[in-house]
Amino acid sequence: MADLFSPTHIMENLIIIGTGCAGFTAAIYAARANLKPLILAGNMPGGQLTTTTEVENFPGFPKGIMGPELMMNMQAQAERFGTRIEYAMVTSVAKTAEGHFDITTEDGKVYQAKAVIVATGASPRHLGLPNEKQLIGRGLTSCATCDGAFYRNVPVAVIGGGDSACEEANFLTKFASTVYLIHRRDTLRASKIMADRALANPKIKPVWNSTVAEYLTDEKGEVRAVTLENLVTGEKSELDLKCVFVAIGHVPNAQFLGDLVDKDENGYIIQTKGTRTKTEGLFAAGDVADHVYRQAITAAGQGCASALEAERYLSEHGVH
Ligand code: NAP
Fold this sequence. Notes:
The chain is of the alpha/beta class. The chain is built from seven helices and 19 strands. Strands 1, 2, 5, 6, 7, 8 and 19 form a seven-stranded mixed sheet that branches. The protein starts with 10 loop residues before the first strand and ends with a helix. Bound molecules: NADP nicotinamide-adenine-dinucleotide phosphate. The site of NADP nicotinamide-adenine-dinucleotide phosphate has 16 residues, from helix 5.
């Protein structure tokens, strides 16, 4: 039996960490450039799109495609050209004195690579209520662009008071009958222009000083209402709605990189040029470095760019 605690001693050209749109697109490009990439897939193979239903805005699918199917297609396309995938949660990455990377996984295994692409995405922050995880895709989501169009002429709610919450709420007014904006304080954190726009929209009804204490479901297990708790008076009330959009921020999955990268105040990796980071040979692509666009197609675009840059880096270091 293999000793999990000893290094593999196989020097990979390129290890891609993460299997969302950025990771698989990087793999497709790197594999077609004969780099024989290895992907390390964490505990959410396929990334955020596996938690959504129909994707209507990914170019090339005029009738839409289900999120999980899109990711399976990307995986098949990456494997077709020789990408290998291992399921291992990365806990740390270090650059050695010789210039390669040691990548340690949860089970103590150490992988070695000449270049690394980090495409670990960002996880939406949740309230932490007991049935929250089970309700994702059943009336609870963190992506208005993905799921807003499914809730036409029905009441929905957005939780949060930042730019994301205001942006999502405004977008949702195209479809929903009413958009409740549930915020734990009585002033929005969002930039003035975004806040003003949201508050001026007659379809958006702010619910101040309040939090969602409970999600209530119907007989099909889908969200039908929430229990609101007023944080000033302690009063509880029920609010009927069909979907809750949780917009209380994202947590980029970059904690395991230590000092190898610089991060902005929200924890997103700072790219120095293109998808390069401050560490030579370490590239970052997709939502782990992008808090602005956060779309499947922009993540795929960065995945492509990171593979081209990694290919150039490796060729400058003698890998052809
Ligand atoms: P954010 O600015 O951190 O706002 C998070 C919001 O969620 C805050 O209002 C916060 O309340 C609330 N919140 C946090 N934890 C909560 C909890 N446990 N329960 C209830 N509410 C909670 O996050 P964001 O809106 O996602 O924005 C992230 C960054 O991206 C920001 O820099 C933002 O400017 C930027 N962004 C820009 C645009 C744009 O310019 N188009 C769009 C989206 C995002 P408090 O206010 O009480 O802390």
